[in-house]
Amino acid sequence: MCGINGILHLQSQKKVDERLLTKMRDTLEHRGPDDKGLFIENNIGLGHRRLSILDVSEAGHQPFLSDNGRYVMVYNGEIYNFKDFYPELRSNGFDIRTSSDTEVLLKLFELHGTKMLHRLNGMFAFVIWDKKERKLTAVRDRMGVKPLYYSFYGETFYFASEQKALFAAGVSLKMAQDGMEEYIFNRFVAGENTLYENVKKVLPGHILTLHESGKTTSEKWWDLKTEIQNQPKITNPVEWFRETFDDSVKLRMVSDVPVGVLLSGGLDSSSILASLNQQNFKDIQTFNIGFKEKEHNESHLAKMMSDKFNYGFNTMQLEDNALFDKLIDSTYFQDEPIMHLSEPHILALSQMAKPSVKVLLSGEGADELMGGYVRYKALKYPSLLSTIATIGHMDYFTTSPRYEKLARYSQIKNQDDLVIYNGCNIYPNDIAKNYGIINPPKNEYRNQILEEAKSLYPNNLRRQALYFDQHSYLCSLLDRNDRCTMGASIECREPFLDQRLIIGLGSLNDKWLFTGKKWKFILKSAMASRLPDEILNFKKVGLSVPWGDYLVKSPGFIAELESFSKSDLFQMPYFENIDAKKLVQNLRKGDTKMIPYIMPIFMMHIWLKTYANKF
């Protein structure tokens, strides 16, 4: 696991500035404190910071050169099945000189080019420079677990694992109008665009090829819709799921350093723990975040599971000034205003885990694959939403936060928009009313994904929402996990995101997902003999945080809330119609309905004040 970066001067033999490349690289030191390297040859420069997971010796040093000297690679990620390729490589005349997946990856590329990508089981973002053909090949894994950003700026191509390295190289930090619109309406920017005008992402499952001349092509190497359509019928889904999930967990234990588990106490992370126990993995440490507020706390379940399997249990709480400090830190690591609101907690948890482990397993992806969010239930009977819309003023719908949100959601009339805004906390009508912002974003990428979802699952809004989230909301969660764990120099792995599970689950009948009161039926069925009823039937909490209390009761936040009401943010054209003082006044009066409206712009205020000013 690493941080990668590079510079290519286009149509020029201007030599790459070593100091500038070093500055970019060392901006990513938190991603790789164990080793560092540079490769510079005239107009091309590659940088690397290493977190040693596999082959912790110097043999895994990067940038990594091919034996014949033609290719140079920088790589961030893990290929879990890398040893499977040893016989093939040796039979083709390659010597295996290290025990790292880096060497295997580059030699597979030498042998097959990008045609080998389908055979990899892992998470990865890598860039290879071909000295002979004078071109860069940049590749990102299927689901976008590992990040890769780039910028064409001033006749030069820059790339890096995080945006901050691009800004450190001199790329201007300028917010994109479309990006701000997506942040407000959809919580994050989906697809290849970012919040920044000059910065893009290599899309998950894509290859970006850049010739020295400046000619650029983008190719999709993995298409989930096609994979689902080509999946053979699964005859015994529960047995298939259990066996595949166990194998995925086993693969993600491939490591030369200790591995732990992010354990919330919920069904997903507990299933990982149960699988580890079933496969006789010993001496596992679990890490949990707790809350003093009972409705947010699952620590007792996490401890029960750790004790049940004789695994080490570590927990912590994050409140008041410590929470505020971690908010500032996590905003820096995230590069954009935080939007899941759990970023400070995952960062603190990772920092607590760091002395014990270098790798953490996470339950991310289970909800998007198997229907774990309550918000999907609203899509089961869309006609009921129109009924709710007509009675939304009733006390029954406005006293409970969940029903109040449902009443607001029911105001959306268009079925496409029901899917597009399903993962949001506030909706277009709310934004118009509270922010004075009328025009929603273009959402070209979101609309493209929705069309794919509709063609794959016609007249099935729930399945469309799952497919949609797998290409959008889940990407933002994976980005959060990567930034928060790598901020503590820890690698995060997600067993639910093995491609066999993603494709197979996408091909199953609805009943395997949506049966029962809380759905995720196949997971509960597969784990029924391994997990106690307290886990199987516990009300889903997730990592929810009582922000309303923090903002009005915690000293650091009280002061910042006052600063927020006068923020420079509201001098910017897009935000000038927002009455921040009124929002804050209503929150202080105890109106908790204000929290969904305050949090996104409060976090943007924090970002503007603490991050943007750094660059």
What global shape is seen? globular
**Largest beta-sheet details:** 6 strands, antiparallel
Percentage of helical residues? 40-55%
Strand % is: 5-15%
The total beta strand count reads 17
Number of helices: 28
Distance between the termini: 26 Å
At the fourth CATH level, what is the homologous superfamily of the largest domain?
A: Aminohydrolase, N-terminal nucleophile (Ntn) domain
* Uncertain stretches: none
* Major sheet strand order: 2-3-1-9-8-10
> What's the CATH first level of the largest domain?
Alpha Beta
Radius of gyration: 24 Å
Indicate the structural class: alpha+beta
Q: Name the assembly state.
A: single chain
Domain module count: 3
Q: What is the CATH third-level topology name of the largest domain?
A: Glutamine Phosphoribosylpyrophosphate, subunit 1, domain 1
Rounded mean pLDDT score: 93
What CATH architecture label of the largest domain applies?
A: 4-Layer Sandwich
